[in-house]
Write a structure and sequence with these properties.
About 70% of the residues lie in helices and about 0% in strands. The protein is mostly helical. The longest helix is centred in the C-terminal third of the chain and has 35 residues, at about 55-90. The two termini are about 25 Å apart.
Length: about 90
């Protein structure tokens, strides 16, 4: 019986699960696109309402999220490249 086949109520320490290490670029790109879409929707459909209620800073917040998404995406591209190299190095005997 392997440690993974043990019943959950069996005595002794349980094996630690491997940490997740998913590719991060899709998350960074998705966040950047979300900020762009939110800013575009606010600008096109709610600009008058934002101006009349004094909430035009929401557009600046969306622009900031969009602009910060570019270096974030670059950072995640480097992270994923290091992850691929690390996995390739550990796979070799």
């Amino acid at each position: 019986m392997t440690p993974d086949d043990r019943p959950s109520d069996a005595p002794g320490p349980r094996p630690r699960p491997r940490p997740l290490d998913p590719p991060m670029v899709p998350f960074a790109v998705g966040g950047t696109i979300a900020w762009a879409v939110a800013g575009l929707v606010l600008f096109l459909f709610f600009r008058d309402w934002l101006e009349s209620t004094g909430r035009t800073d929401w557009l600046w917040i969306c622009l900031t999220g969009l602009l910060l998404g570019f270096p974030g995406t670059a950072t995640m591209m480097r992270h994923d490249a290091h992850r691929r190299r690390r996995r390739a190095g550990s796979a070799q005997p």
